[in-house]
Amino acid sequence: MDNIFNIDREILKLSKVAEEKIKDQFIEIERIQEINSQKVLAAFIKNKVGERHLHGTTGYGYNDEGRDVIDAIYADTFGAQDALVRHSFASGTHTLTVALFGILRPGDSVLCITGTPYDTLRGVIKSDTDTGSLNDFNINFDTVDLKADDSFNEDKIFEKLNKKKYSLIYIQRSSGYENRLAFSCEQIGDIVQKIKSLYEINVMVDNCYGEFVQDKEPTQVGADLIVGSLIKNPGGVIAKGGGYIAGRRDLVEKCSFRQTAPKVGKEVGATFDENRNLLLGFYLAPRITAEAMKSAIFTSALFDLMNYEVSPLPTVKRYDIIQRVNLKKPENLEKFCQGLQSGLPIDSYVVPYPWEMPGYDNKVIMAAGGFTAGSSIELSADGPMREPYTAYLQGGIDFSTSKIAIMSAATEVYRNER
User: Fold this and answer.
1) What does residue 244 show for φ and ψ, rounded to 5 degrees?
2) Average pLDDT of the segment spanning 284-301
3) pLDDT classification of 304: cutoffs 50, 70, 90
4) How does residue 1 score in pLDDT terms, banded at 50, 70 and 90?
5) Given 3-state DSSP classes, what are the helix, strand and coil percentages for the chain, each rounded to the nearest 5?
6) Among 92, 221, 235, 417, which residue's CB has the most CB atoms within a 10 Å radius?
7) What is the 8-class DSSP label of residue 180?
8) 382 pairs with which residues across the strands?
9) Rounded distance between C-alpha atoms, residue 346 and residue 222, angstroms
């Protein structure tokens, strides 16, 4: 393999050590994957999915049985009352935006209890120009930073709730470009229970990167609404795009009115030829997510052996598919992404460099060679060109080949430091 992929012999040695260290984690990942796969299968059987559901509609999309059954399968799998699953959502940010504008009204206030949200959502919250942000509609968005140990700052949360009436609690489950761990469903459920015991308030969770990582979802521990992207975990690499909103029926209905038109909601929306992709992708999603988890843990173990700061550590329980590697120097971040790119199935010959990516404050470098553009469930990595020059790796639909790309990234960093 070192001759075919030009992987350094030292990295090959370290990789064998890394794989030996994470055998038990792989067993646990496979246990969770089996549970989630059976949940999905049960939802398919319960909703009597047939060959007719694989075909789409055109025009207005009236009476699209496939569209309706996809919604039902997501709802049943995620322990929700209803779901809105559409290939026409342009991204996770778009889906989150529809959800926020669907359930909020002018004069409402939101409290995000996980600090400032991910970069691309900041323009949705507030913009200096008239872009139609929440602020333009007199919707206020407050934040509470996490504590130093990255736990919920309950004192600050309840201080805010005691002083002001909020319509929505917002939780970002994954870390974005912050150097913290993702939140487990147990952690989310605990804070939601405490808040709801004192206040009548809705809770929405940005569930991106977290689906099928555990054997439950935030809707099963008290969240009223969860939102995610189909080119991440639940699309199972088959979905070409889209997003989902799942949760309480009345809230999902409000979101559907924003997604199409008031009083029309879920009754329209042609699916064209996408029903098969969404159904097959969701069926495969637990297995694909498990492969991504293995890729993340292997990356953590390998770069930990190379004496780089990694988060999560290889033996720490994780609640999303993202792996952070602090590479210390800008050139190491570039080499990491360039090495990873060289081991990807699509565009392996491309050399990534930092660029001004829309929606971000710093230049960003990205390695991506997937069959779907921008897919975060396929192996990719990106990072802003700012200290500590962290590579954020996610995805990997087949560990045996993802391992090659990860070792290629390690080789480029290792040789750059020699």
Assistant:
1) -140, 150
2) 98
3) very high
4) low
5) 45, 15, 40
6) 235
7) S
8) 366, 392
9) 41
Selection from 114, 405, 385 nearest residue 394 by Cα: 405
**Residues sharing a CB contact under 8 Å with residue 304, sequence separation 6 or more, in sequence order:** 18, 310, 313, 314
Phi, psi (rounded to 5 degrees) for 64? -85, 100
* 3 state SS of 108: coil
Of the candidates 244, 224, 209, the residue with the CA atom closest to the CA atom of residue 86:
244
Determine the Cα–Cα distance for residues 190 and 384; give it in Å rounded to an integer: 33
Task: Count the Cβ atoms, other than its own, within 10 Å of residue 175.
Answer: 23
**C-alpha–C-alpha distance, residues 399 and 402, integer Å:** 5
Say whether pLDDT at 2 is over 60.
no
Please write the tens of the pLDDT for every residue from 206-255.
999 999 999 999 999 999 999 999 999 999 999 999 999 999 999 999 99
d(CA 216, CA 60): 35
Q: How far apart are CA 100 and CA 107, in angstroms?
A: 13
Least confident of 2-16, 50-64, 394-408: 2-16
